[in-house]
Amino acid sequence: MKRYLIMLFACLAVLFADAKSDASQNLGSVGTGISNVSIIKGATKKQADEAYEKEDYQKAAQLYESLMAEKGVSSELYYNLGNCYYKLDNIAGAVLNYERAYMLDPGDADIRANLALARGKTVDKVTPPSELFFVTWARNVMNMTSVDSWAVIGICAFALMICGILVYAFMSRILWRKVGFYSSLAMLFVVVIANVSAYNQQKSIDECSSAVVIAQSVTAKSSPSDSSTDLFLMHEGTKVEISDKTMRGWYEVVLEEGKVGWVPAESVEII
45-120, superfamily in CATH? Predict the structure, then answer.
């Protein structure tokens, strides 16, 4: 029996460790979304931070975007860029970049707070549908921290689980064997949670279909044509889900409250 338990723990440990690695290795695949921006070569974060402190928000935004274009994205840079756009009263730019920061690090309290603040300044007040409490609970657990942090938690839990297995396998005292057995079970549970959370977060990044309205206002149409029936009006900063990209120059979008319509592709930007 002991031999089979050890083999089971070892196989599950390897499986979950591999899943953790796959979930975290592609972090940073979110695009910068930079368009029509004059890139400043050799930009540094220090220069961008100094420009922000001097309240030169336009230059700071340009430097942060240049930094992401040259060196890659991060939740911190997206957050700082969102702050610049918020100070410039560009609500769409603020919401877009806070959303991108939140996607990479949903556990950051400052990102969540500023995103809520920016959303509060949008014209459209969309009420999301209610959901079962355990769905909300599961999402909150998954979004407690970032993919990288879940990876660290998974690695630590995996190491502790191996220690528990070794204690169970090689200690002769019953008390220590029980400690090893139950602690390894507990750590296995943590490994599973860490891997599932990391996988789902990475999947939401890789397969993101959310977008933000960047036009000052846009009217959703009943079909992908300017001559089709007007359905509803949306304003800058409104978050939508893109459900259809097959029509050239048009996206079918869905609001959180369930409204569906077609909008010109240039009126929204994918998160």
Answer: Tetratricopeptide repeat domain (1.25.40.10)
